[in-house]
Amino acid sequence: MLDRQIRKAVVYLDPGEFKSTWIGNKAIYRTRMALADGAELTVLAPGVKEFGEDAEIDRLIRKYGYAGTPAVLDFVRDNADLAGNLGAAAHLIHGSSEGRFTITYCPGHLSRKEMESVNFRYGDLSETMKKYDPSKLRDGYNAVDGEEVFFVSNPALGLWAHRSRF
Q1: How many domains does one find in the chain?
Q2: Lower CB density within 10 Å: C or N end of the chain?
Q3: Rounded distance, CA 112 to CA 133, Å?
Q4: pLDDT for the residue 157
């Protein structure tokens, strides 16, 4: 759908819709196929305050983190709690970059320690929003301080919804 792979992507998660990484990770699995190896994905997540949509999912994400397919398959094999919740296991895989690109989450309500404990890089929301102001960026490629950035204002729609804008 795109002429070239994305090297730097910034995805905005509307705080009224995205309160958890469980839902917010659409930013990852809806862009992953378009991201180049070694790319950077920055997720602006002002409403994110938890990992899971319920206490058990939140606990599993905090326990195992977004570790990629081989590690999650090992976790499932060796741990009854994750083996008993394959939806959570699939989410952990889909929320990982599989080592292909970096993911920096800029949450509104989770700490650096919490984000790093689940294998995401942490970004300061206020500072990052100043640089990548969602009210000034348009979907698709933008120039920000001489840097080419691919912006997605709503990952729930998917890249295909914006095809004509690229």
Answers
A1: 1
A2: N
A3: 21
A4: 81
